[in-house]
Amino acid sequence: MRLKLQTLVNEPGCDHNQSKTDKQKKEACKKPTPGATAGGCAFDGAQIVLLPVADAAHLIHGPITCCGHSYNNRGTRTTVGDLHDYGFTTDISEMDIIMGSEKKLKESIKYITEKYRPKAVFVYSTCVTAMIGEDIAQVCKDVSSEVRLPVIPVDSPGFAGSKNLGNKFAGNSIVEYVVGTKEPEAVPENSINLIGEYNIAGELWQIEPILKDLGINLLSKMTGNATYDELAYANKAQVSVVICSRALISIARQLKDKYEIPYLEGSFYSMKQTKQTLLKIAELLKNDELKSKIEKYCAEKEEATYAELEPYLPVLKGKKVLVYTGGVKSWSVLHQLEELGMEVIKSSTRKSTEEDIDRILDHFEGDQSALMPKGDGRTILNLIKEHNAHLLLAGGRNMYNAMKEQIPFLDVNQERHFAFAGYEGMVELARHMAYTLTSPVFDVAHSKAPWEVM
Amino acid sequence: MVRVIEKPLSVNPLKKSQVMGAVTVFLGIDSCMPLVHGSQGCMAFTKNFLTQHYREVTPMQSTAVFDIATILGDDSNLQDGLKNVIDKLKPKVIGLVTTGMTETRGDDIKAVLSRFREKYPDYADTVIVPVSTPDFAGDAETGYAEAVAQILTVAVKPEAGKEYKDKKCINILAGMHLNAADIDWLKRLFADFGLDAFVLPDLASTMGGQVTRFYSLPEEGARLSDIESAGCADFSIAVGASMEKAADVLLENHSVPYKKFDTLMGVKATDELLSWLIDYTGKPVPEWVKIERKRAVDAMLDAHFSFGGKTCSIAGEPDLLYGFGKFLSEEFGIKLECLVTTAKTGHFETLKADNIIFGDLGDLEENIGKSDFIIANTNAEHICKRKKLPLYKAGYPVKETLGHFHRNFIGYRGAMQLAFDIGNICLEKDIEKSHKI
Ligand code: SF4
């Protein structure tokens, strides 16, 4: 079990380990600091990737914290089922730890398959069940033949590492156990896999129409609004497009190695990147006709979008923004803000890979001081004050910090209710930034109480 | 009779872990850092959960136990975690909470703690409260109760607070089911009876939204100095059956007598509290209290036309469940169909319900019968959507809802509020029904 984890950490797709010396590798993957760590565990990361598959059941093998504190908590939207809303857990007790809980796990899987009729069951191992040495892969295999359904083990004990690593564990389970097990009804021309888009707040539904307009077929979505079956025939796509999740590049890499599907990394945040990504897709599809179609399409869309943006641009122009978000978004959102005429004073490099950082630096023309390393709420707030920033773009965790200091804020991570991708998303983003920047609430908040002015 | 539905797994858990309960207690203490001993995920999930519930910053940390350390079981993470938290944040108190993972590994945190004390004598000023909260046993309420009891065991100093007092001091041990508005109500009531009340934990002050600046440790909650002198109080009040354990600590170690209120929901339960206050202080009842009682009764009379013939199902931790169940059935006359709870503690067995189940929201869904509405946490929203029933949110977590923590459930005020809220749900049902052909 531990051996296997080690190979996963070392595999070439790992952001941290690619093209580094042994010493650097150790550095980059170093352990979190006790008493000064934020962020979720590997199990959390695995669940983020797989949970959007809503016609499959997700069974968490462990005591109550793992599932009890996390279910019904994703902003992912879907139309293929509702099993992602369910929290299934073996909820193991002290007795189970002493006596072993493989039998319980088996029965749980059977219970779920009989009662909820899923297309498949994903079974996650967590810290305690991994520690007591439960062989979930074997259990899954046994039950799978009994219930005649795919039962997929996901090796994801939290102690193995960060969320990013967990993303990769999930990707690994998809490639190892799911991809290549089904045949699609048809594979239309220009079929792609979209990897790393979880349909948070319905963002996929802003990207899908663009692809449809251009005649690009989304064969397999990994995993926003995905059915289990479409993961199973992802090997039939012509191109893989990885967006906004570096940790899932490993899926694309494995699909390339195994099935010779070329891949590209792209983003649908900002008009410029949307266009670039589309052009890259056309290129890998070797479709020149598509290319010229894209040029024309994007020009029209951009014009229409600017027309829609008109009421908000005066409010946004010249406003200073601090961006504190993870990974890919730390650079992709910069383009969006730039197109809206805003000035980014710093962007965080938290959870960013070296390529991410290069892209941020590109944007700031190499100015290192624009990079913001990991910092706590206090650091962020101090920077905002120091630079007289008008707005903080960050994840929900920092929302209440910003509100404590009465600073306009927009949530750009998991729990938000608004989608910011593609052309529609640009307008949505502009609108919501304008709302918070002009909200009269801040006047009230900044006003002194009568007894403070007297 | 409490039933356990035989099934191998939990479907849509109602239960939260002891970790969550214990961390919640520490969030209600001034300058206290909850430190979760385990992998980072347990803390991250708990933080996310409580942040959404309170809509506030919820400071907490993890010892970030990692792969190798997990297998070898050394205690460096715990030692380093304590050291780093003290160096960086200088809390007055650290609430050290274990997880299923470190308990499975067999960590003896008390032993580690004494090694830490030996190694770092300079850090002796920081009070460290170890609480054993494996998530493979108990529930959030038992974790909460355990944490309060442990604080009182570890931090109370027999000699503190013996100086001259012009008022009688009362410890109010506040159960997990109380909201900020409930705690505020208790404070005002006790103050107006001329008592000096100390609330432990005081989540109203820390998580109620009154702190208007950034903080990396809880501010304005129960203060350490007050905890230290809790042994010199004249009396303790335990609110919720789960708080009895903590009251016992003060009784046994410091001879502080106590009275326990299994619930303070409803007019009858509140009357009991008022009777005690009148007896204990000999003081007249404040005018506002008298008015609130009249208003509560008036609201209940106005609402009762819609209560008749209604049925409801409730899911929650034992204390919350008992309070709601008793009040709704005995004072509103609403029939209880199915009650689901998370631990076999508490008094809910005495409630008159068709089904009392020790289980999860999956059990609730199956045994809902002909309920007209449901009282449960936000996670029951999908059940209510499927069954087309109204959900009155209570318990943990209540998310995607503003202001929950400031809803008042106890006292006369709470009785009035619930008569309105539940009354409106029932009224709407009646109107809806009258439109059906
Ligand atoms: S750290 Fe381990 S026990 Fe905690 S939530 Fe993650 S998998 Fe579960």
UniProtKB/TrEMBL annotation, chain A:
<dbReference type="GO" id="GO:0009399">
    <property type="term" value="P:nitrogen fixation"/>
</dbReference>
<dbReference type="InterPro" id="IPR049939">
    <property type="entry name" value="NifE-like"/>
</dbReference>
<feature type="region of interest" description="Disordered">
    <location>
        <begin position="9"/>
        <end position="31"/>
    </location>
</feature>
<dbReference type="InterPro" id="IPR005973">
    <property type="entry name" value="NifE"/>
</dbReference>
<dbReference type="GO" id="GO:0065003">
    <property type="term" value="P:protein-containing complex assembly"/>
</dbReference>
<feature type="domain" description="Nitrogenase/oxidoreductase component 1">
    <location>
        <begin position="41"/>
        <end position="437"/>
    </location>
</feature>
<dbReference type="Pfam" id="PF00148">
    <property type="entry name" value="Oxidored_nitro"/>
</dbReference>
<dbReference type="GO" id="GO:0016491">
    <property type="term" value="F:oxidoreductase activity"/>
</dbReference>
<dbReference type="InterPro" id="IPR000510">
    <property type="entry name" value="Nase/OxRdtase_comp1"/>
</dbReference>
<comment type="similarity">
    <text>Belongs to the NifD/NifK/NifE/NifN family.</text>
</comment>
<protein>
    <submittedName>
        <fullName>Nitrogenase MoFe cofactor biosynthesis protein NifE</fullName>
    </submittedName>
</protein>
<feature type="compositionally biased region" description="Basic and acidic residues">
    <location>
        <begin position="13"/>
        <end position="30"/>
    </location>
</feature>
From TrEMBL, chain B:
<dbReference type="GO" id="GO:0065003">
    <property type="term" value="P:protein-containing complex assembly"/>
</dbReference>
<protein>
    <recommendedName>
        <fullName>Nitrogenase iron-molybdenum cofactor biosynthesis protein NifN</fullName>
    </recommendedName>
</protein>
<keyword id="KW-0535">Nitrogen fixation</keyword>
<comment type="function">
    <text>This protein may play a role in the biosynthesis of the prosthetic group of nitrogenase (FeMo cofactor).</text>
</comment>
<comment type="similarity">
    <text>Belongs to the NifD/NifK/NifE/NifN family.</text>
</comment>
<keyword id="KW-0560">Oxidoreductase</keyword>
<dbReference type="InterPro" id="IPR000510">
    <property type="entry name" value="Nase/OxRdtase_comp1"/>
</dbReference>
<dbReference type="InterPro" id="IPR000318">
    <property type="entry name" value="Nase_comp1_CS"/>
</dbReference>
<feature type="domain" description="Nitrogenase/oxidoreductase component 1">
    <location>
        <begin position="17"/>
        <end position="425"/>
    </location>
</feature>
<dbReference type="InterPro" id="IPR050152">
    <property type="entry name" value="ChlB/BchB/BchZ"/>
</dbReference>
<comment type="pathway">
    <text>Cofactor biosynthesis; Fe-Mo cofactor biosynthesis.</text>
</comment>
<dbReference type="GO" id="GO:0016163">
    <property type="term" value="F:nitrogenase activity"/>
</dbReference>
<dbReference type="InterPro" id="IPR005975">
    <property type="entry name" value="Nase_Mo-Fe_CF"/>
</dbReference>
<dbReference type="Pfam" id="PF00148">
    <property type="entry name" value="Oxidored_nitro"/>
</dbReference>
